[in-house]
Amino acid sequence: MDEGKAMAAGEIVDNRPLAPGHYHMTVRLPASFADPSPGQFVMVREAGRMEPLLSRPFSVFDFHRRGEDALLELLYRTVGRGTGLLSGMKPGGALSVLGPLGRGFTMDPGIRRALFVAGGVGVAPLHFLLRRAFASPGKRDPGDAVFYFGAASRDLPASLAGLSGLCDLRIATDDGSRGFHGTVTGLLEGDIDGYDPGGTALFGCGPAPMIRALALLLADRPIPCQVSLEERMACGMGACLGCAVATGTPEGERAYRKVCEEGPVFDIRQILSLLSCEQGGP
Ligand code: FES
Fold this sequence. Notes:
By secondary structure, this protein is of the alpha/beta class. It is built from seven helices and 16 strands. It has helices spanning 81-87, 123-134, 155-159, 184-191, 208-217, 259-262, 272-275, and strands at residues 7-19, 22-30, 41-46, 56-59, 62-66, 69-77, 94-101, 113-119, 145-151, 168-173, 180-181, 200-205, 225-228, 244-248, 254-258, 265-267. Strands 4-3-7-1-2-6-5 form a seven-stranded antiparallel β-sheet. It has a seven-stranded mixed β-sheet with strand order 11-10-9-8-12-13-16, with helices on both faces. The longest helix has 12 residues, at 123-134. The radius of gyration is 18 Å and the shape is globular. The chain starts with 6 loop residues before the first strand and ends in a 7-residue tail after the last helix. Mean pLDDT is 89; it is low at 277-282. Bound molecules: FE2/S2 (inorganic) cluster. FE2/S2 (inorganic) cluster (FES) is lined by residues 233-236, 238-243, 258-260.
């Protein structure tokens, strides 16, 4: 656990469904809450509730300061008891929020084009990165950001329509109800050789099969790529060791690293388990 972080008291300002099984929550936090960087996450639980025991990890979708308040925005999918309970909470509900935690994305100032590849709620940290890098006056030109967004159906992309004002948005859906009919990496595969590897960087977040497909797509293409492995986290605080992934060191050795403490963002080429997936790796 990151001993330098204190649990903050949060109050739900808004908690609404965006698409079937997906919710957007805004949480008011004390002004003392540190600014998160894109790719960092928070651990959240209902204040005072002893069960379920563990807080849940969520990437930051957005973060603002307004007067004395810090406003944290989260995008989440209901996948179990913890997120199910969270989805039923009303404005005014009390939360305990630990964070910001982990190591986020870095965007080299020399990058001329940024490609974002998001699957489902993996859109959350990439939305925050996109806004921080491209959406403010004096920042990068939104025309240099291409955002590939994959979802099960049109519902989630339709609820995040504001993305299209920040970038060149390209959508893939599993059921073909909007955009490309297929996976988001299938959509990217049709475009990827049109990008100059020298000035391009890729940022990804999504379910494990998407990250593996991305690793394969980039295996013989020299485009730098950082991915967030947020799905691998359990306790989120360095206690359970359940998030360890095998990575390669610069010296060519193998080292296990905790996603919650040394990630969740890694260079995709350092994650050995992704590179072995052709041989049926994890
Ligand atoms: Fe438990 Fe990282 S999620 S140690």
